[in-house]
Amino acid sequence: MNGKANKRNGVENGNFGEDLVLANSISNGEDLGPIVRLAFEMGRPGSLLQQLKTVMKKKDIEIEELCKTHYEEFILAVDELRGVLVDAEEMKGELSSDNFKLQEVGTALLSKVEELLELHSMKRNIMDAMTMSKNCIQILELCSKFNDYLLKGQFYPALKTINLIERKYLQNVPVKSIRMVIKRRIPVIKMHIEKNVNNQVSEWLEHVRCSAKSIGQTAIAHTASLRQRDEEMLERQRQAEEKSLSGHNDYFYPHDVEFIDEDCFLELDLTPLYRAYHVHTFLGALSQFQDYYYKNRTLQLNSDLQVPSSQPFVESYQSYFAQIAGHFITDERVLRTAGGLLVSDQIEIMWNMAVAKMVSVLNEQFVHMDSATHLLLVKDYVALFATTLRQYGYEVRPLVESLNNSQDKYHELLFEECRQQIANILRNDSYEQMVMKKDSDYENSILLFDLQTSDIVPAFPYVAPFSAMVPDACRAIRSFIKSSVDYLSYGGQINSYEIVMKHLDKLLIDVLNEALLRTIHSGNVDLSQAMQIAANIALLEKACDFFLRHAAQLCGIPMRTIERPDDTLTAKVVLRTSRDAAYMALLNLVNSKLDESMALTDKINWTSEEMPQEGNDYINEVIIYLGTVLSTAQKILPLDAIYRVGIGALEHISNTIISAFLSDNIKRFNVNAVIGINYDLKMLETFVDEKFHITGLSDMFKEESFRECLVEARQLINLLLSNQPETFMNPVIREKNYNSLDFKKVASICEKFKDSPDSIFGNLSNRNTKQNTRKKSMDMLKKRLKDFN
Q: Which residues are in the Exocyst complex subunit EXOC6/Sec15 C-terminal domain (predicted)?
């Protein structure tokens, strides 16, 4: 029993606990859903309902107890509540009245508020519409501006406009379809612009290639004008220095220096290239455009570097180098002004390739050239080309070195041309004195080459001492000097004057002098020609000083520096030697002619029976011939040359007389023959004395006259006609009267000398004491000479 009671109490205690929890939850106002759900899940809804009833009973008991406890207070509260209810009813009436009034007033206000809200909504819609319209207007304006740029070909502003649309306005376009259309069109537009720009660049590349020759020619012509201006300034400066040294200090030459911007005369429009550069930079395709430009320019350069085969190089070299110059001038401008389109390394690669090709072309063409004029023209133009490109920062040293290496080839051609000119001059020369009829002839043939013998201009017509060969040869040599200086100028030659002197010496020695010697020794020169050649050489020797001054003037060397004794041409000495050779040739011709006239073994009766009363006939011919020679020589030869010819001829006459006595054809001769030769000698001595004074030689050569050239023959004749010929063996007398005679010659001649004629009548008529004495003396001389030998 107790156990069951305990069990029931336990159950009740458990139920009590659950009721307590449920009551607390209800008191706290908690949600009873979880408890109800748990009860149903556990299959105990009845228990839950029982618990709820139990809780309700407990609450009813609590209320009942509470009401019993506070009954009076509750009654009072109810009374108060009723009073409050009355007040509430009154207030409700008042509130209803107020509400009615408020409704009446609020109805009007509510309609106003609704209108206001509607207006606010409309305003917001209008503002949104205005914003959208504004965006649309802006994008449409930008689109219109873009179209204008595109139509005008202003692609860079067009790209900037389309980029602005894309970045700032495209997202604000309210109409999606329009926004998508614009978005799809932008890449197409960019491709269109890039294609058009590339087409323009292609056209520009073709145009600039066609214009490159004109650009190069203009730049090279400008360089040539600058060079000409510098030459004129240097010449004025040189003249000023010369005048200053001579004491004329009032000479003035301007130092005007004109700075000219090359861009002002090179018509080169790079606008398409600049536009393409900016467009490709904007599109982010600059590296591709740089490669495109560089490859195309390299291809163009390779084409320009090919020498045209349709015409000779001497006709196309200017176009060839002008085209290359225009190419690199254009690229230099692109490098300088087009940002990073070209880099210096790329230009250097192209330039080195071009230089290597040009050097190869020049070397090949120079080898095959056979005209110095053509080589000079090419060299001068290439030098201008190098100077022009140097001004634009290009390294031209290999080109200059190539030009310098052709110096020997050029001078070989120049020597050959001058050799032909001088050969033609000598071949066509008449070897007659030039006759000048007017001042211009005198200036062009004499004053121009400093060949005048006096500062006084002679009367016209004037007969010059030289033939036409001299001024013609001087012109050829002056032209050679000019050509040599022209070639050496602007080629990096520091000491061009020394080089010109070397080549000038070679020309005068190996060309002019050799041609003169060949003419002299050709055997086809007569006496007048030989005399004229000798005179010409003397004038050419004098002209060497002019050649030296002319070379110095062209090289810009002050005259004072070439007036030193050691600054002279070797050719001057060589020409002097050739002049001596011409004198010897002249003398040989004179002596040859004298030999024809003085065939003494045939023209003298060596054993004449009668004493002659005058000289032999040949001596008149000799004197006339000598007179003609000396008179002609006096007109064209200098006095020292006349003297040399005179003494040479007279010594030959003297030797001829001695040789006649020694000739094997003359077995014997007598005194009559000697007397006749004595007459000949006297006539000749009288003639040469007269000529010696007339020609003015007596004033220049006072120590030895023409007569003294005949001294050996004179002493021999005097010895043979002497009354005491044996005195020859007396040293004192011999030194005084016969110092030119040789013992052996005298011995041989005396052996042939027979003092009396062979005729019997002659012996009878001429035999006298004086002759006997002379004969004995001669026999004594013969004996003593024989003993001496």
A: 399-752
Cα–Cα distance between 334 and 322 in angstroms, integer? 18
Give the tokens for residue 131: 């914003």
pLDDT for 607-638, tens place per residue? 888 888 887 888 888 889 888 888 888 888 88
pLDDT value at 564 more than 80: no
Give the model confidence (pLDDT) of 565-612 as tens digits.
556 788 888 888 888 888 888 888 888 888 888 777 677 888 888 888
> Could you tell me which residues come within 8 angstroms of residue 512 by beta carbon, excluding any fewer than 6 positions away?
422, 473, 477, 540, 571, 575
Q: How many CB atoms lie within 10 A of CB 65?
A: 10
Facing residues of 637 across strands? none
DSSP state of 777: H
CA angle 643/645/651 to nearest 5° reads 95
Tokens of 552: 């110095």
Alpha helix ranges (H) inside 153-167: 155-164
**pLDDT at position 67, please?**
77
Name the nearest CA neighbour of 674 among 612, 620, 732.
612
Residue appearing with tokens 């040739």: 585
* Strands 669-670, 462-463: pairing kind: unpaired
Angle among Cα 753, 755, 761 to the nearest 5 degrees reads: 130
What pLDDT, in 10s, does the model give residues 80-135?
Answer: 888 888 888 888 888 888 888 888 888 888 888 888 898 998 998 888 888 877 87
Give percent above pLDDT 90 in the chain.
Answer: 7
Residue 462: how many other CB atoms lie within 10 Å:
18
For 522, the 3-state DSSP assignment is coil
Q: Which of 576, 568, 529, 520 is nearest to 547 (CA)?
A: 568
**Rg (the chain; Cα; Å):** 67
Cα 781 from chain centroid (whole Å): 87
DSSP element (H, E) containing 171: none
Give, as one character, the DSSP assignment of residue 339: T
Q: What's the CA dihedral at 756, 761, 765, 766 to 10 degrees? A: 0
Distance (Å, whole) CA 188 – CA 193: 9
User: Rounded CA gap, 266 and 270, in Å?
Assistant: 12
At residue 777, what is the residue type? S
Tell me which DSSP letter residue 495 carries. T
Using alpha carbons, list the distances in angstroms from residue 584 to 95, 357, 494: 167, 57, 43
Name residues whose C-beta falls within 8 Å of residue 365's C-beta, 6 or more positions apart in sequence. 313, 317, 378
CA distance 503 to 518: 21
Amino acid type, 251: Y
Relative to beta strand 669-670, strand 753-754 is parallel
- The distance of Cα 119 from the centroid of its chain, to the nearest Å, equals 88
pLDDT tens digit string along 685-729? 888 888 888 887 777 777 778 888 888 888 888 888 888 888 888
Residue 174 DSSP one-character state: S
Angle at 366 between CA 364 and CA 368, to 5 degrees: 75
What is the torsional sign of CA 282, 287, 293, 296? negative
Quote the pLDDT of residue 448.
83
Which neighbouring-strand residues pair with 670? 754
**Do 313 and 306 touch, CB atoms closer than 8 A?**
no
Query: Do 722 and 751 touch, CB atoms closer than 8 A?
Result: no
Phi, psi angles (nearest 5°) of residue 463:
-95, 115
For the range 589-593, what are the long-range contacts, defined as Cβ-Cβ under 8 Å and sequence gap of 24 or more? 589/525, 589/526, 589/527, 589/530, 590/527, 590/629, 590/645, 590/648, 590/649, 590/652, 591/648, 591/649, 591/652, 593/527, 593/625
The 3-state DSSP class for residue 32 equals coil
CA–CA gap between residue 544 and residue 561 (Å, rounded): 16
Measure the CA–CA gap between 582 and 107, rounded to whole angstroms.
Answer: 151
Rounded distance between C-alpha atoms, residue 623 and residue 629, angstroms:
10
Whole-number Cα distances in Å, 387 to 210, 353, 360: 23, 18, 19
